[in-house]
Amino acid sequence: MAMVYRKLAIYGGEGGREWDDDVYEGVRKVYVGRDLSRITYVKFEYVKENGEVVTREYGKITQQPKEFVLQYPHEHIVAVEGSYKSVALCATEVITSLVFKTSKGRTSPVFGPSMFGIVNGTKFVFEDGGKKIVGFHGRSDNALDALGVYFALDSPNTSTSLYKLEAQGGTEGRVWDDGSYDGVKTLRIGQDNCRITYLEFVYEKGGKSETRNHGVKGQTPSEFVLDFPGEYIKSVEATYHNPILFRNTVITSLKFETSKGRTSFFGYETGKKFVLEQKDRRLVGFHGKEGDAIDALGAYFAPIPTPAPVIPAKKLPSVGGNGGVAWDDGVYDGVRKIQVGQGNDGVSFVKFEYIKGTDLVSGDDHGKKTVLGAEEFVLEDGEYLTGLVGYYDKIYGVEEPAIISLQFKTNKRESTPFGMDSGEKFSLGEKDHKIVGFHGQAGDVIHSVGVTLVPITITE
User: Fold this and answer.
1) Does residue 277 carry a pLDDT above 70?
2) Beta carbons of 332 and 344 less than 8 angstroms apart
3) How far is C-alpha 311 from the chain's CA centre?
4) Which positions are tagged coiled coil (predicted)?
5) Which of 113-122, 196-205, 427-436 has the lowest mean pLDDT?
């Protein structure tokens, strides 16, 4: 079953270096070290799906760390409580206590300096209705500056594992959640003189576009268009603040970075900063809070799709005469529509519409239409070209031989012949291959035609 991992933002200070353990099957042991005023060291023993044990440690050992051992795989951590505050010799706040609670109802000792069991600092709790904690992230240097967690949530509605990063910003406003999609195609951002007031996202799911909007639109929003599906949002850097004259804390700026290194900035960089990013993942949806502006923002991240293996294309030489100029439409995923125009003695015009991913791409005109116009051959869904047969010959008034007729074969049927059956016959195509492109030579008539082939896949 695919999983959704809920990633909660860190509690603590902004000192030290950021670290992120990501997610595992479970936690087997926790080690915690301290000095007289703070937690200085943590070490986690994780278990991977294949049973391998992975150890991660942070901070600095000043006193012998104490351990808390779980009865893995029958017991797991379901909650973490703690506190953080400013202490002597630290420029920012640090973690001052930690307590772990398990699915068996056990509670670890209070790790950290305390007097008569009482800890000092701002208290925090990570808990989600008994859900299992499967990873930690935070900040550290010579001490544990901040800590966050990952919860594992079963989700029968997803085909792949998702990371739901907690919405950060203000605490007011209505909760909204777009869910997850195949990707983000377009973003439209509205702002006033101090905050982000409007978000509009165009997502794609199953080849169809879906639009979601939040906040108050106001003036015409700015637009950021991605080259979907080849480009995705890699990270979102944001700030939130309580602007003068407004009651709510809201999002004040947004900066998007894509997989192609492009960035786009909106708003005013003021207030506290946070980043929505998951290593080796792509952003596939947003959630947050809204009112007259965007109060808070979170995101969904999914694995980066493995690129489909490149199927080598084979270009068969064109057949016919050597007149006119050379043309080549290139290579696509398939052919959707063919137009063929005839003159008095042969084929004078061809034009092809190709399939590329979920898009249709119109090829260039080749040759010249006559008063006879052009006939069409349209392929159905699941139908593809397997061969081309025709004739070429000399025609009156044209120095080089020209194509006299064309007939197209698919995996389901044959087209009617376009033109006359006279001259030299030719056939283009190969067994277990489909036609994905055309090339040739043309002037006022079609002098020659060739095809580009790729192997037929099992799913076709």
Assistant:
1) yes
2) no
3) 23
4) none
5) 113-122
Query: In this predicted model, what pLDDT tens digit does every residue of 84-97 receive, in sequence order?
Result: 999 987 889 999 99
C-alpha to C-alpha distance for 277 and 258, rounded to whole angstroms: 11
Residue 71 identity: Q
Of 264, 185, 254, 257, whose CA–CA distance to 225 is shortest?
A: 185
In the numeric block, the tokens 């042991």 are attached to 29
- In this predicted structure, the answer to whether residue 1 has a pLDDT above a threshold of 60 is no
CA angle, residues 90, 94, 100, in degrees to nearest 5: 155
436 contacts 453 by C-beta, under 8 angstroms:
yes
Q: Provide the whole-model pTM.
A: 0.70
CA neighbours closer than 13 Å in the CB half-sphere of residue 253: 15
- 108-117, 183-192, 288-297, range with the lowest pLDDT: 108-117
Three-state DSSP class for residue 70: coil
Contact 251, 236 (CB under 8 A): no
Q: Which residue has the tokens 């010799």?
A: 89
> What would the two tokens of residue 216 be?
């108050």
Sheet holding 208-215, edge to edge: 208-215, 196-205, 183-191, 222-225
